[in-house]
Structures are given as structure tokens and as C-alpha cells.
Write a structure and sequence with these properties.
Distance between the termini: 16 Å
Helix content: 25-40%
Number of domains: 1
Shape: globular
Oligomer: single chain
Largest sheet: 5 strands, parallel
Strand order of the largest sheet: 5-2-1-6-7
Strand content: 15-25%
Number of helices: 9
């Protein structure tokens, strides 16, 4: 059984789902500390006529520096929801498949999500479904596993009965191969593709939110993303 992990990003880039496709299950690390710095957990990139369009979900941070990702609450002060929604509608009005996904776009900014992790999980499940990725998702919080670094990852593998742990080649220098070997877990590495596809607004921009792929390519998105597996 091959396990991979990722933090629950907001509207993740296509490589997130490619990694999931190469796995039997992906564990979303919702019980690790929410980063103090800028993070993909609360923002991602889309595209407009100016180039990159950043969509950021404001969250409460003051006095909460040690909170886990699962505890982070969305800050609904201001009119950012209306601005983000209008920005996406304007930017993708001419995308061939945007109208098919307008309901989930509106739901993202509906205000019904108290916690960021719940919003992100809804979006991840939606994208996974429409990208036709059948891999199971498991929440770290459901496993009851805590820890850091290799200890956390090997603990997750043991808990779910995984014999292999899949990671990007870029993460190789951060993983202790001996720790995994001692736990009876084989490390596997891959290089995620950065697919090129028809895109609005001028020069192509790589690794935007997977929504950009879906809005532009619709049912062809799975083939574009997963056409050539690249597992080492």
C-alpha cells in the first residue's frame, strides 16, 4: 500500500492531485501547526488579464501562533468574499467550462465555513472528483497520530498499514531514509508534471490552482494531468 501526505492546501495546484493519483491513499495533515508565514493553505493563484490573480482566504492569527491547521478560523470581516467572487467571474467568464463549476465557486465564498480546513477539504474533494482521481483521502485528525517530521510520517504509515511512502524528489533531502527503513517503510519518489493546456489571457502560467485547468479544459483535464505517469 502506497501512502502520500500533503497539507490541506486551498484550491491546490494540479501536482497535488497527480501525487494523489500515484497513491492508494493520501493523508491530509490537518493536525500540524499552521504556518506563521505566507502559506498555500490559505491562498492560491488563478489568472486574469493582468497575469497572476491571487485569491487569499483571511484567517484569524493574532494571539494564535501555535494553532493547528484544523483549528484555524476564517475571518469574515470586510467584503473580500464579494471581491474574490467577482474577480473569478470576470477572469473566467470566457473559459469554456467555468459555468459548469460556478456553484462551487459561489459556495467557496458563501460564508458557511467556520474553519479553513473545512473549506479546503470541500474544495479538494470537489476537484478530486472532477479530475477523476479515485484515491482515498484520510484526515490526520481521524488517525489520532501526532508528531513531527519522520516520526509523524512513519507513524502514519504504520497506522494505515502502508509499506511505501511517496514523496516528491524535492523532499528527498528532508527525509531520513534510515528512519523509514527501520520502520519497514520503503521510500518512493516522483517528479510531478506541470501540464500545459489551453489557457486564457496571454502567456501560459504554470501550476495555478487546478480550477484553472478545470475551467479551461473540463472533461479533458484528467487526461492532460495524468496522461503520462512519472513514478520513480
Amino acid at each position: 500500500m502506497i501512502i502520500s501526505t500533503y497539507q490541506p492546501f486551498f484550491a491546490p495546484f494540479p501536482g497535488f492531485f497527480y501525487k494523489a493519483r500515484l497513491s492508494d491513499a493520501m493523508v491530509l495533515l490537518d493536525k500540524v501547526q499552521f504556518p506563521l508565514r505566507t502559506t498555500w493553505i490559505s491562498r492560491n493563484r488563478f489568472k486574469n488579464d493582468q497575469g497572476t490573480l491571487w485569491i487569499t482566504i483571511p484567517v484569524w492569527k493574532k494571539g494564535l501562533s501555535l494553532q493547528n491547521i484544523s483549528e484555524v478560523k476564517i475571518c469574515y470581516n470586510g467584503n473580500w468574499r464579494k471581491k474574490h467572487l467577482e474577480s473569478l467571474k470576470t477572469s473566467y467568464a470566457n473559459a469554456p467550462y467555468f459555468s459548469e463549476h460556478i456553484d462551487v465557486v459561489e459556495e467557496m465564498f458563501s460564508g458557511r465555513f467556520e474553519r479553513l480546513a473545512n473549506l479546503n477539504l470541500m474544495v479538494i474533494k470537489y476537484l478530486k472528483k472532477h479530475l477523476k482521481i479515485e484515491t482515498s483521502l484520510i484526515l490526520q485528525s481521524d488517525l489520532g497520530i501526532r508528531g513531527k517530521g519522520d516520526e509523524l510520517l512513519t507513524g502514519i504509515c504504520r497506522e494505515v498499514g502502508a509499506s511505501q511512502y511517496l514523496a516528491q524528489f524535492a523532499a528527498k533531502k528532508y527525509l531520513d531514509g534510515r528512519a523509514f527503513a527501520d520502520a519497514g517503510i520503503e521510500l518512493k519518489f516522483f517528479r510531478p508534471p506541470s501540464p500545459v493546456y489551453p489557457q486564457l489571457w496571454g502567456d501560459f502560467i504554470h501550476d495555478l490552482s487546478a480550477f484553472d485547468l478545470l475551467f479551461n479544459c473540463g472533461p479533458k483535464s484528467h487526461e492532460i494531468l495524468c496522461g503520462r505517469p512519472d513514478r520513480a
